Amino acid sequence: MYSAVKRFFITGPQGKSQQSGHFNDSRWWLGLVLVTAIAFAATYLSHVSFIQHLGLSALTIGIVLGIIVGNTLFSRMATHTDVGVDYAKSVLLKAGVVLFGFRITFTQVAGVGWQGLITDIAMLSLTFWLAVQLGKRAFKLDEQTTILIGAGSAICGAAAVMATEPVVKAQAHKVSVAVATVVVFGTLSMFVYPIAQGYLGLSEHAYGIFAGSTIHEVAQVVAAGSAVSPEAANVAVIEKMLRVMMLAPFLVLLSLWQNRKQAKAMNGKATAEQANNDKSNITIPWFALLFIVASGINSSQLVSPDITEQIVHLDGVLLTIAMVALGLRTHIGAIRQAGVKPLLLAGCLFLFLTIGGYGLNLAIAHCL
């Protein structure tokens, strides 16, 4: 595991170590200081009671602060901090995805049973499929934006968008657009679900599975579940974490799908030898596989609860830093240029998650 971490988080994609170069470059240090300072400000704000009531996480606040600074002050210091900011946006992001696995245990997965597992698989698959179909055919969006919005809606909100970015190699403003849509409709669902609970005819357990399988962010799931009852909140969080665990296989399949499309695009233009080389060069998001390894370590209790708690805290810091770095590299003009179509796509997915998700939850519960 150590060699894999070293290879993919320190040495870079070609395996050539750039560690000493980073340490000797003031732009790396200054960039990390900048994003860390903004990230700590975002974390502090996320604990303010008013913001907690809104259900806004440090990740969301981090990207907002990053965009504000990025479009005001950052241009004056970019040449002195760019290396560290880009390092945070790529390497620290992958490290955060790996450590996210320490939030989950395989026991939690077993707790919701086959109903929860089948519901999550169905909702993830159908939501992402619908995103690709609507994004490309109905709204004529570019593939990167479509995939990012689909991943954020189908799996775990901003964290899924951030984890998907290295696989599709999306531009910063497209990631920011996707995160914004997830925040808007995830926040809306946080208020709508508890109100609708009285009219849905669901038990607290069934409501928990419904909320966990359809709401975007973990923090939003906690809020929507807690507004009903502690039991609903517990079931919702476990169901949501099972959905989060599917992030790793999703990223692997997405990477294989991307490479297959590239191979088809080259059909008839490459020799058999070149085709074999392409197969051997398939990009595997190893950080996603290490995510599963981290979940396994957490499940086996090889690490004490106190250390696990510290790792989870560190993970939150790393992901917030990555969001800040992304915001710093996002230009408002590029977001405006994206137009209303990304929001419309996310809105359609929100309707499917709520209405279609409710129907699918009832159908699966009835069948099992």
UniProtKB/TrEMBL annotation:
GO terms for cellular component: plasma membrane. It is found in: Cell membrane. The chain crosses the membrane at residues 28-45, 51-74, 144-163, 175-195, 280-299, 311-331, 343-364. It is a multi-pass membrane protein. Keywords: Cell membrane, Membrane, Transmembrane, Transmembrane helix. Its main location: membrane. Signal peptide: none annotated. It comes from the Bacteria. The keyword Cell membrane applies. Belongs to the UPF0324 family. This is Uncharacterized protein. The lineage of its organism: Bacteria, Pseudomonadati, Pseudomonadota, Gammaproteobacteria, Alteromonadales.
